[in-house]
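Supplementary notes (optional reading)

For those who missed the lab, this is the record we used. Protein: Acyltransferase family protein. Length: 378 residues.
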Amino acid sequence: MKTQRRYDIDWLRVIAIGLLLIYHIAIVFQPWAMFLGFIRSEDSWEGLWKPMTLLNVWRIPFLFFVSGMGVYFAMKKRNWKQLVWERSKRILLPFLFGIVAITPLHMYIFQSYYKISPNYFPHVGHLWFLGNIFCYVLLLMPLFFLLRKYENSTFQKVLSKVMNHPLGPLSIALFFMLETYILQPQPFAMYAQTWHGFFLGLLAFLFGFMLMYSGTNFWKTVLKWKWGYFGLAAILYGIRYYVYATEAPGYLMSLESISWILWVFGMGYTYLNKPSKTLTYLSKAAYPIYIVHMFALYLGALLVLPLDIPVSAKFIIITIFTMALCFFIYEILIRRIPLVGPLFGLKWDIRPNPNKNLPEIQNTFDKENLKTGNESLS
């Protein structure tokens, strides 16, 4: 079944991964960085965290929404066995490989920085996100295929009608409010390897699929009402920042999170739903870069933090170093070595290309890469 290409979703995922890198780098300059297992700068920059508090309630839930949307696209051309096999190759394999070969690297750098005796041990680290997604696929797959079987059912028509109202998309916040009421997370943004992170991600993954399943009315609504969602999110953030010192009650933070996410979807649909060669490249690179970015970040911190320069300069240099090293690793190792790429989530394509030396093939737009966008990190 043919589906319309959604370049805005590709762009938003790439942007979200970029924000994730900056967010993690900002943690290095906070006095509580070691509590999360990060290398900590002796020179703190607590003011840097102010803009990060605007991101921390929606950045991870947003990626789970996008991942659920990616499964919707993937199911259009796969049965359940093919979906499980494809997700095992694209998610489970990089997850398991990363636990034994990637996350121990940045822990080794951590030990070196603090002059701790080196000790190898596999651990999940930042790859908890991939483990969660694979669990969600297995847990929700029966429901997703049941919904696909009845794609033009009364339920879908009712859902589409609900999403035609500006409060329709916003109503899903009720489920997230309930989750925070039951689990009482402290703090709200502690997603990694917590039950709060697991169930919040499960809801976001489910509703990412459901929003695509509901049809075009959802996208028309966020297109029309995006600034209304922005206004609500901004008001809720103002309350959280000035009244609650950035940690408001869970129900307010859940509503703020969904409001930001709806605004982001509306902005993306307005301005980003168009192809480009830059998007083709970045969409394919985003997943491997997510996997290796903590190694690059820790190495940058190891090299830059001892320098006698202003803390703002350290932040800028570590940011540039992290991104440059990530792209270098992607270009030199992951993208160009066929047997390495699948370990970082790239498609399994180890067949030689008999036409690779033909100029007309080299100069055409890479159509195969266009297929990776909506399915990466999903």
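If you only remember one thing from this example: Residues 350-378 have pLDDT under 50 and may be disordered.
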